[in-house]
Design a protein that fits this description.
- It is a single chain.
- The chain is an alpha/beta fold and 345 residues long.
- It has two domains: 270 residues, Luciferase-like domain (TIM Barrel, Alpha-Beta Barrel); 72 residues, no CATH class.
- It is 44% helix and 13% strand.
- The strands form two sheets. It has an eight-stranded parallel barrel with strand order 1-2-3-5-6-7-8-11, surrounded by five helices.
- Helix 2 links the parallel strand 2 and strand 3.
- Helix 1 runs parallel beside helix 14, helix 3 crosses helix 5 and helix 6 packs across helix 7.
- It is globular and about 65 Å long.
- The termini are close together.
Length: 345
């Protein structure tokens, strides 16, 4: 099992200890450091700035939103960071949701799978740098020839030769069709709210993608990085209680009531009635009641909590389920070191 440090996206202010966490993660043997974005900070800049003090860890985005950049622009970011890091970049992509895509980026959310397939294909063509990049579309036509076009658009190759012509692309995916697409066209899966109990279901989705003609990877060389809170403690009850407000937020308050991808994940786990109750409570402003309605097992499904031995057993359970990397959030350097000691040995 490998460890990845999840820096996430910034709140109202940048985290004060970002450089400390990144340096500690490399020293402790973490395999990678990831940064995210939502509608505030971006994912690439922290990796470039804080990652400049590292020499070994991979630097990944988990995730950048495909509606925020054209595929060629995203490829420019990726090839630049890959050069600056000496070939350590992982490009993690995701579609986000309609509230962000249409409300923040002003782009249509429709056909997320088709858009993802086309987006990834163009990025790979840019990085391969074999010929000027063209695309028939329909989502990202190159050159553009639609309404308002001058007719002067010219197919281009990147001026800068990529350090690697095949930078790893990982996709954030939650539903069956997205996960199957990930196994088909990507090099890794960024899984959120992963439950080892549902590994047989995930494996069916993955195997569908691996079996498609032209699939890039097999299960043997495909990476699965799952977001997972790992807490070493003798007071499991307090830790679980502290996580319930966060679970309630994502289940009941994220996205639109009629389309919340996180809520759909928990429905697949069998918590449909709880999701309905939490959503109703949360959106009526009764957030404390929403958190109280979350059962303990709904929290522990997607995290590893307990004493040293229990955590080690939990990590083994996730590894046996197919996860190759745990993406963990840490408070400080001491937390980084303690997780490395327990998980990596």
């Amino acid at each position: 099992m490998e460890l990845g440090l999840q820096l996430g996206y910034w709140g109202a202010q940048p985290p004060a200890n970002g450089p400390e966490l990144v340096t500690a993660a490399e020293a402790a043997g973490f395999d990678a450091v990831f940064a995210a974005e939502s509608w505030g900070s971006d994912a690439f800049t922290p990796l470039s700035w804080w990652g400049s003090a590292t020499e070994r860890v991979r630097l990944g985005t988990s995730v950048v939103q495909i509606s925020g950049r054209t595929p060629t622009n995203c490829a420019m970011h990726a090839l630049t960071l890959d050069h600056l890091s000496g070939g350590r970049h992982i490009l993690g992509l995701g579609v986000s949701g309609p509230q962000v895509v249409e409300g923040w980026y002003g782009q249509p959310f429709a056909k997320p799978l088709a858009r993802t397939r086309e987006y990834v294909s163009i990025i790979r063509d840019v990085l391969a740098r074999k010929e000027p990049v063209t695309s028939a579309g329909p989502h990202y036509p190159l050159p553009y020839s639609g309404e308002g076009a001058t007719g002067l658009g010219k197919p281009l190759k990147p001026i800068t030769h990529p350090l690697r012509s095949d930078i790893p692309i990982w996709l954030g995916a939650e539903g069956p069709k997205n996960v199957a697409l990930t196994a088909e066209i990507a090099d890794g899966w960024l899984a959120i709210y992963y439950s080892p109990r549902l590994a047989p279901m995930y494996n069916e989705w993955l195997d569908e993608g691996f079996a498609r003609p032209g699939a890039r990877r097999t299960r043997e060389d495909f990476e699965i990085a799952a977001t997972c809170q790992v807490v070493v403690t003798d007071d499991k009850a307090a830790t679980i209680a502290g996580m319930k407000p966060v679970t309630a937020l994502y289940v009941g308050g994220m996205g639109a009531p009629e389309l919340n991808f996180h809520a759909q994940v928990y429905r697949r786990m069998g918590y449909g009635e709880v999701v309905d109750e939490v959503t109703e409570l949360f959106r009526s402003g009764r957030k404390d009641e929403a958190a109280a309605a979350i059962p303990d097992e709904m929290v522990t499904e997607t995290m590893i909590v307990g004493n040293h031995d229990e955590v080690r057993a939990g990590v083994k359970r996730w590894e046996d389920a197919g996860v190759t990397m745990l993406l963990v959030s840490c408070r400080d350097a001491e937390h980084v070191q303690s997780l490395a000691h327990v998980v990596l040995g």
